[in-house]
Amino acid sequence: MASAFDALARLEDERLDLLRDLPLALCGRRLAGAALSCFVQERFAEAGFSGDLARFLAQWRSPDAFVPVDTSGSTGSPKRLLADKRRMAQSARRTCAFLGLKPGDRALLAMPLRYIAGKMVVVRALVCGLDLVPVEPCLAPFGQLDAPCGFAAVTPMQAWESLKEPRSRDMLLASRHLLLGGGPVSAELAELLRDAPCQVWSSYGMTETLSHIALRRVNGPCASEWYEPLPGVVLSLSGEGTLCISAPAVCEGTLATNDLCEMDGTGRFRILGRRDNVIDSGGVKVQIEAVEALLGPAMHAPFCIAGVKDPRLGEKIVLLHEEEADPAELEARARQVLPRHWVPRACFKVDALPRTGTGKPARKEAREMAERLAKAVW
pTM score, two decimals? Predict the structure, then answer.
């Protein structure tokens, strides 16, 4: 593994003029020079995913050193950032080296190109010579494939939905590497993938780190709840227990996150939850992600936990869910799997939980929804 990374180009060696002129393999067809320019020009004004791809390629091939990218807005309002093309190339090289991806390997593009995850699939194809296979982003993208992909990066929700339909499931399982990102991998999804013949990975990263800086295996004998940082990534904990990232190849300076983590003695880490996802109820601090992890096996439809203001407790824990179930039944299930102080004080049925464009829970909107529903009954 180390030798593969030792052979990589360094950040200072990345040349924008060479990155701009890289060819693209697209569904088995090599596009270079005038052919790639023609592809971009013909589709630039198109609506839909094909147009999105052409517009991103135009940005990549422009003289600018940066490309705009939107954050998902999972904890607040989405922001627009500028991503350094040279660092994007470094991130692509590190992922392909870690996974052993080779030129010509098919790479599924099934995530929106507004966000860093989708953009980085394209950059990996450009920089490392992968054969890009774009399909319109949807809940079960594997059903649109005519042949398996060596590398498939999807959200956990896309993987979950793809496992429901036989042909889509077969295509997913025939992947060589399945990379899950954009949200946590639930215990239920991990169990479904436990014996998958492909290598399944959960990724940790964010827009600011240009996709992931750490991976963990979800299946097989190497499965672990501990993330392993990619070479060149140095991690530490702040005084508040949140993760700090130093990864000079992909982001400038040290990045302080809001993710509460535990580290072992080898540099690996596991996520405990976000610092801003803590509900203080009657002096008991409750981590939202911990409640959801315990409650997940008892739920039969999408759900999330939120906190609402309460004059006596400070905050109350409430459950938002899409399940057709009696509130008393849900409360009984919760009491079977949760500590007493973690049991939701109310259960609200909603038509659809708020989510970001990448499928993650939109926590701010979920809290606002919970507040509105609580005011109507309390």
Answer: 0.84
